[in-house]
Amino acid sequence: MRYAFINAHAGEFSVKRMCRLLKVSRSGYYAWKHRSPSQREQANQALLKQIKAVYLVSNRTYGSPRIYRHLRGEGLFCSRNRVARLMQLNQIVAVKAPRRSPVTTKQRLGAKVAPNVLNRNFAAQAPNQKWAVDITYIDTAEGWLYLAVVLDLYSRRIVGWAMSDRINTHLVNQALKMAFLSRQPAEGLLHHSDRGSQYTSGSYLDQLNQHHCTVSMSRSGNCYDNAVVESFFATLKVECAHTPFNTRAHARTTIFEYIEAWYNRQRLHSSLGFMSPVMFEQVIPH
């Protein structure tokens, strides 16, 4: 493995220096280089090729646990430690999101608020029992693009979403309308949000009342009360929007593809036994 690392980076660093740092002899390295690769080395190279393919499909966002699970799901026998070691040696690292954010929650004076009925109980026994909603920002060269989502806590599936350059009531109403149209929930759905002015507006609460929803709201200034949606937004920033988009139009297209084609249908979720939300709803009985 150490010889393979030296060979892979021989054009970047001194072979002498790498041999000294990795505590191997140069003569041993050159002897290894000029002999035929062992079956183990050939197997490692074949596995590395598959690791890189999965890594690229995930838009460079998967770390070793998800790549390992994906490979096992494809029927490939390998250990998690081996995948992690090959990724480390070849500097295959999941991208991380920058920290920069505007204020998206602003409570309206005198707004009608509801108690925190959800109370951080994010488990659900079936689809459309509990929905959590929130708004985040997307950075573009043209200014902020705001994204409102509705997330089903059973499967972590995004069941409604909308985007706008304005953070207003229309934005959240559109996301909620999509969710109601696509899911047709029964009466008694628990709907959880923060106390922002968008979610306490008359038109938004009217939608919830018309569908006989139970309304729940986070306590002021407590992001942990809506931790699952916060986690989705963090994932989105890492996997899809880790650098600013050139235009809002490009951001809209990319985020649409991310939510509908990747996140809901393909991305492996550790909280779902490494299944996608769509797969989880199809496979797990409820």
The radius of gyration is 24 Å
Largest sheet: 5 strands, mixed
Low-confidence stretches: none
> Can you write the helix and strand succession as a string?
HHHHHHEEEHEHEHHH
Given helix and strand content, the structural type is alpha/beta
Classified by CATH, the class of the largest domain is: Alpha Beta
Task: Tell me the CATH architecture of the largest domain.
Answer: 2-Layer Sandwich
Strand order of the largest sheet: 3-2-1-4-5
Distance between the termini: 47 Å
CATH topology value of the largest domain = Nucleotidyltransferase, domain 5
Count, helices: 11
Number of strands: 5
Count of the separate structural domains: 2
Proportion in β-strands:
5-15%
Give the overall silhouette.
Answer: elongated
Give the helix proportion (percent range). Answer: 40-55%
Average per-residue pLDDT, rounded, comes to: 87
Mind telling me the CATH superfamily name of the largest domain?
A: Ribonuclease H-like superfamily/Ribonuclease H
